[in-house]
Amino acid sequence: MAENLWLTQLRADGCRLTAARRAVTEVMQSAERALTPVEVYDAARKRDPRLGLVTVYRTLEKLEALGLIQRVHHEQGCQAFLRAGVGHQHILLCERCGRAVHFEGDDLEALFERVGEQTGFEIKSHWLQLYGLCQDCRTGF
Amino acid sequence: MAENLWLTQLRADGCRLTAARRAVTEVMQSAERALTPVEVYDAARKRDPRLGLVTVYRTLEKLEALGLIQRVHHEQGCQAFLRAGVGHQHILLCERCGRAVHFEGDDLEALFERVGEQTGFEIKSHWLQLYGLCQDCRTGF
DNA sequence: GTCCTTATTGAAATTGTTTTTCAATTATAA
DNA sequence: TTATAATTGAAAAACAATTTCAATAAGGAC
Question: A89 beta carbon < 7 A from strand C?
């Protein structure tokens, strides 16, 4: 019953392990870039051809609720999902191929303090995303 | 012909100044928080009751292209617009009332350098948004 | 001010995305 | 193996955004 971590988590949450959930889970776990629901649908149907788009939406919602995937915001629209980082991590996206990488270690406390003083706001959380060119896309292709 | 800056910019871009554009412009210029196209539509119709939603979409698109408004990304969905900041500014949003404030002066160069080294990416741009509670929402209401 | 040209408009239709409904299916515990 | 309740896919509905097109009106020319 060699289950992977996400399936174990789903089960711990009281979910049944179905072909649909396995397919969506595998797709999301192995994705190198953020995928839209339709992209997930297309990819997952190769593993489970009977899969419906509705189930993809529902499964993504569940995975997001469990913190296993996260939404990625692009210039136009924000309906793409990527496996979540561990702990407090942010995303770095390649502008050319879309590859997504997590990184950590932003130290923005000083910034928050200053902005808080200037604006009167109490800063609660933040959201940082970097864009650039990945190694492959920099060095030709 | 006391035109304000946005209308002057629109005209400079070759646009005609219509009631629809005046209405949408006024709404966006005075908005304290990010508004969705439908919210803009509702507010702008108080100034120009004949305004259609399609025109709101088109006008927002134009204003965004001119850099006068910008998209604001929320947890769920990213179809809200706010007047743009001047120069390199970021947004700080109140989690409770939605009020949006611009701030500047993030110094993230050191972070970019380190992340670039670690990941092999060439960092091109970044995107930062802060969330918190504004003064009013902190001190009761 | 009047006329003319053409950008702009609103309504309707279209397209695309997400959610809801519901009967059939199937994972899982007993 | 059976019972039961979660899960599913298909269809329909709701919602959002875009395209089409004839009517309107802004603004330059006179």
Answer: no
What are the phi and psi torsion angles at B134 (to 5°)? -75, 165
Residue B102 and residue B126 in one domain? yes
Tokens of B118: 């670690």
Are B27 and B96 in a shared domain?
no
Q: What pLDDT digit, counting tens, does each position of B26-60 carry? A: 999 999 999 999 999 999 999 999 999 999 999 99
User: Do A79 and A93 sit in the same domain of this protein?
Assistant: no
Residues A96 and A72 occupy one common structural domain: no
> Is residue B91 a contact partner of residue B72, using CB atoms and an 8 Å limit?
yes
Q: Which residues of B touch A89 (CB under 8 A)?
A: none
Question: Final residue of a domain: which of B47, B67, B83?
Answer: B83
Could you tell me if A10 and A67 lie in one domain? Answer: yes
Q: Which nucleotides of C are covered by protein (CB under 7 A)?
A: 7-12, 17-21, 26-28
Question: What CA–CA distance (Å, rounded) separates A64 from A70?
Answer: 6
What range does the domain containing A117 cover?
89-138
Q: Which two tokens stand for residue A137?
A: 């896309």
> One digit per residue, pLDDT tens: chain B, 141 residues?
446 999 999 999 999 999 999 999 999 999 999 999 999 999 999 999 999 999 999 999 999 999 999 999 887 778 899 999 998 899 999 999 999 999 987 888 999 999 999 999 999 999 999 999 999 999 976
